[in-house]
Amino acid sequence: LTILGLESSCDDTAAAVVRQPEGARPEILSSVVFGQTELHSAFGGVVPEIAARAHAEKLDICVRDALADSGLALKDMDAVAVTAGPGLIGGVMSGVMCAKGIAAATGLPLVGVNHLAGHALTPRLTDGTAYPYLMLLVSGGHCQYLLVRGPEDFTRLGGTIDDAPGEAFDKTARLLGLPQPGGPAVQAEAESGDPERFRFPRPLLDRPDCNLSFSGLKTALMRMRDQIAAEKGGLTRQDRADLCAGFQAAVVDTLAEKTRRAIRLYLEEQPARPTVAVAGGVAANTAIRTALEIVCAEAGAAFTAPPLRLCTDNAAMIAYAGLERFKSGARDELDLTARPRWPLDQSSPALIGSGR
Ligand code: ATP
Ligand code: FE
């Protein structure tokens, strides 16, 4: 099967071609990503209207380039897959309209994909991870532990009750005058910082579940920053690096401890050696990857993390998730709608906790 995938749910416009021959591993034939970072940089965050216009402008070029890079044409595709949510609605609509246009013009089947399923199935694309597995999805807008049993079978074991870690990294960068997206900037600063100098809170560690909270980190950071500024009139480079290191250490510790608990909860459902996979933009963080690797080794679990360029938004993951849906017989019609909100486990009765 050969699938064309489109992604436009946030600030990356992307198209990709993924092929999986019968009985073989999937292969990424092409993956084109147009980032919009510079369009939004003056505003300190993604501006939905600007994002939607840029997607509408770039999608056809992305598709053309992805096909060219793959050496194939539309007639060689078996289906077109597109992110149908969740995300910024204008962007999602641009992608869905583009995919519908292709489907209507060529007669190719259309497959709508949940963006989060794209992230959550990435370890199957990159490592051939078998079902079931425990997924820690950590991105710009989401943070959840999922028991993944199939392409549309996700059970949420826990997750954040407020901010996502990516959001916390981005806010931290903004508060310290670092560029967006904040994750890579804060990670780079943290490398030359002392994680012990500032003690950030580790929320919810007193609870036995695997729910998380990150909004308190922002408040703590503002307090510390303002206190230094009041004492010394401003932040030095070292102050900033130490604040980043302290912040990152709190995120790392919290994710490590909650992952231990998630493994325990997972084992209650699936009593076999678990595979823990991590995905989403924050999974690009090396300190987080290293900590999770150690937690898994201690718990006797296998650990897998996609290469960095497949952690952040891309269309290869959408093409692959579409391929899995398509293989299981799923098809969408031209009345497919864009959904701003679309929880992964909407149909799951085992919803534990609240939040995203
Ligand atoms: P979602 O997938 O939840 O809809 P999104 O698509 O915006 O959100 P991703 O592209 O998966 O999110 O991830 C982007 C987020 O990842 C940003 O918040 C960014 O700061 C964060 N991020 C990227 N690299 C790193 C890093 N090295 N360390 C920490 N965070 C990072
Ligand atoms: Fe994403």
From TrEMBL:
The keyword Transferase applies. Fe cation binds at residues 115, 119, 313. Pfam families: TsaD (PF00814). Residues 340-356 are annotated as: Disordered. Residues 27-320 form the Gcp-like domain. Gene3D superfamilies: 3.30.420.40. Its main location: cytoplasm. The keyword Iron applies. Keywords: Acyltransferase, Cytoplasm, Iron, Kinase, Metal-binding, Transferase, tRNA processing. This is tRNA N6-adenosine threonylcarbamoyltransferase. It comes from Leisingera methylohalidivorans DSM 14336.
